[in-house]
Amino acid sequence: MISYPRAMPEVGAMAISFEKQEVDYMSPETGGRIGGVGAGFPLWRMRMSLQNMSVRDADEWSAFIATLRGSRRAFIAHDLTRQRPRFPEGGPFSEVAATWSQSINADGDALLTLTGLLAGMPLVLRDYIGFRWDAAGAPAGSHGRLALVRVVERGAANVAGTVTVTVEPPVPNIVPAGAQAYFRKPSCLMKIVTGSTQLGEHVLGGYTAQGGVIEAVQELLR
Predict the structure, then answer these.
(1) What is the CATH architecture assignment of 1-78+189-222?
(2) Every domain range in the chain assigned CATH 2.40.30
(3) Is the distance from CB of 21 to CB of 53 less than 8 angstroms?
(4) Where in the chain is the domain with CATH 3.30.200?
């Protein structure tokens, strides 16, 4: 039996763009300065190009997209290029943090403090930190509620296992204090952008199928 939200397939991916999407309105002022106003919370947007695949891999994508019923069902997505902290390469790292907290400084940047990490564990640019919880606010597995932030300022855990880094976007307000911060395959919920998603054609008489494009945007659930 299929359970939802489903984790996206990882086969056949050739290239991926995973960036936050913001809706901004420019507001010129009489003195010449340009103001900016954001509309809504920033959301992650994914665009993934698929390569020529075996029939088996192409069938997996075809079945997966079919079960989503366009944009009606969410799925679990992550950046395939960064499925764990970049450093140490192949070495040990903390799977989860003991606690987390966020503060906003005078410049409006989000400072995320994590505790319970391995001493000296580094977090570098483009590392992701995921948050997972269930509808009641307690920690949950990957089939609960999900949120995702990315490190934009380097940091390393001190001897006590605590580190503070700047992240984008800020942790959404809907993430409860009891949510678990984790580092292996940090993910978010997404829905397919139907007008931009297109699977490739199957080659007649061959054993491969041409690639396609998967485009999706994040969905935040309380």
Answers:
(1) 2-Layer Sandwich (3.30)
(2) 83-186
(3) no
(4) 1-78+189-222
What's the confidence (pLDDT) of residue 119?
96
Its pTM stands at 0.90
Q: Does domain 83-186 have CATH number 2.40.128?
A: no
Beta bridge partners of 198: 213
pLDDT tens digits for 98-148? 999 999 999 999 999 999 999 999 999 999 999 999 877 667 554 589 999
Please state the rounded mean pLDDT for residues 200-210: 82
Select from 10, 14, 46 the least CA-distant residue to 211: 14
Residue 126: C-alpha distances to residues 2, 105, 130, 168 (Å): 32, 21, 13, 10
Partners of 83 in the β-ladder:
none
- Looking at residue 5, what is its pLDDT? 93
pLDDT tens figures, 21-49? 987 656 666 666 665 555 578 999 999 99
